[in-house]
Design a protein that fits this description.
Layout: H1 5-14, E1 24-28, H2 32-44, E2 47-50, E3 54-56, E4 67-69, E5 75-77, H3 88-109, E6 120-124, H4 132-143, E7 148-155, H5 158-165, E8 170-175, H6 195-203
Parallel strand pairs: 1-2, 1-6, 6-7, 7-8
Antiparallel strand pairs: 3-4, 4-5
Helix pairs in contact: 1-2, 2-6
Amino acid sequence: MLSDRIDAGIRLSEKMIHLKAEDCLVLAIPRGGVVVGNQIAKSLGCKLDVIISKKINPPGNREYAIGAIMPDGTIHWNHDVSTYLESSYLKQEIEGKKVAVEAQLKKFRGRSDYDLAGKAVILVDDGIATGATALVILKWLAKLKPKKIFVATPVVAADVYEEIKKNCDAVVALLIPTFLHAVSQFYEKFNEVEDKEVLNILSNYMK
């Protein structure tokens, strides 16, 4: 059991101290991932930035993800979506989520362009359940040709862990449960992180 996101970040960074020599960039997924990523960035003495993807939901279910999308239009599908592909709903859903990602990136970092070529990147979230958001980011990251890609997360579902391993250089996790209903069940304290807290953390890396 994890105390909170700060505890999780500290414990993850202890398992990653060998990466201090890699001159890494921490790319955290807002909002909770930024709190975890901040601890890793401080421990490794590296920069922190954010990256955002949005889940694509089927009709009538805003909680279930059939895939995820990046601001440049990169998509990862978790499931067979052939029954939805020609629907006006899915086209609107994809376009709406793409706009939402762009808006959130503008709010948190002011732009959507990244220069990651030749860099070692650590992708951080506060937990990975279905894997849609992380897998689409890994797909997008591959296009930017970083030197290495690591994924760090306090908790990740076992089947998703195996899938993510195939798409990066290494995965660092504290808990890898076979059954993961909700990320929050592995934290004693899992409070909602506000945009203001994310912006305050990021401001420390803009100096």
